[in-house]
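Q: Hi! First time doing this. I have a protein sequence and I read that you can turn it into a structure. Is that right? Here it is:
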Amino acid sequence: MRSRSDQLKATILGILTLAVFQSVKADNENPTFYADALPVFQKNCVACHQDNGPDVGGIFAPMPLNDYEQAKIWAPLIKNALITNYMPPWGAHERHRGEFKGERYIDKKEKELLIAWVDGGALEGNLSDAGSKGALASNSAGTTLPESGWWIGDPDLVVQFEDEVYVPDEVMDWQPTVQMPVPEGAHENPKWISMAELDPGGPWVHHIVSSHMGVGVPGRGPFTYPEGWGVLLPQDPFITVNMHYHKNPGENTAVTDLTRAAFKFYEEGDVIDHVVETNLLPHRGWTIPAGDSNFEVNNTYDIEEDIYLLSMGPHMHYRGKAMRYELEYPDGEREVLLWVPDYDFNWQFLYEYEEPKLIPAGSTMHMSWWFDNSEGNRFNPDPTQDVVYGPETTDEMANARIYYAPTTPRGLVVGEPIPEDVLNRAATEDMARRDRADLFDPSADDFSWLTEDSP
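A: Yes, that's right. Below is the predicted 3D structure, encoded as structure tokens:
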């Protein structure tokens, strides 16, 4: 018979053995990078978070998430970004899942798995769990930037500023209109655009507006029109863009910008049924009181003919909080077209329908914007000031841009003569943009306007 001392030793040994076993078991149950986290990163994040990652509207991901050492360093911030829904960046509410192209929802189980990986110590695991090394560089979302350097693939036409635009130290907010010359012989006849992509020179580009390339803002990718939808690029030696630069002024803050644009065109014989139109739908004439954390603005827009709605692009500035498009049908029924509950100025998405949506004549679009002008908004430049609609980044805007087309098919065959009304509309839009602004000459090196009194 064992002594009491031997029994005690055996009991203690058993307890220690069980504790070690449970600890090993717990470690084995914790998610690891290669077996668990990496596949989720590849599905949801690696399209941007990779070595030499792509420029998405002037924004670059700060680290690759297909690299364990980097992912481990950033693990606490990854958890915070997931909990706060800052990542993956996508403003449309979960109710819209499946409605829009390029949506960036992350499944609840995938989010919980990544958080558990961080909470479990961001364990590495075994490289063999990830499969072949080729799998480490893959991206199941299929959105790795093509070798051309353009999301649209190999462009048919690339244009850029003739000279770099210099944005001096003194500049905080500046909106020049600049022409991009078309290379000689590259665009001798009007062309139908099927895809267009803007490549801003850096994060100080607040936005870019063009009649033919749409709008470039932080976080927004290329314009890709559905088959049979297009925008006409007139025969013209220049493409005109309105640039909006915004940065902190001061010594050694000057930057240079060489923004570019690329196009892909429809081929001869293709049919254009829908000529894309756009409407900014701005709402002005309001004042956001200082300190107001939930100021609401409302506007309406009457639909006078049957249209197909292609996409929606809400736009506000630093105080933007939320935005909603709601449609009232002729019979009084109402439908929420887009609800963005947590608007983020740094990620201004264009929400493009998987299939263009029929909007019948007689419908009314109701648009609502909410603003936070309080000190609780960490992006607010000055919560002590009333704010009105204005062009500068520190002003505010309430815009609800839409892209659409009449439902009646045009049946325009690419390569055949283009109707005068289509030609005139395309040319008039760009000429109007030039007439509304003084063209900036980057080679002039004249910044005397910086010291002139405003009119």
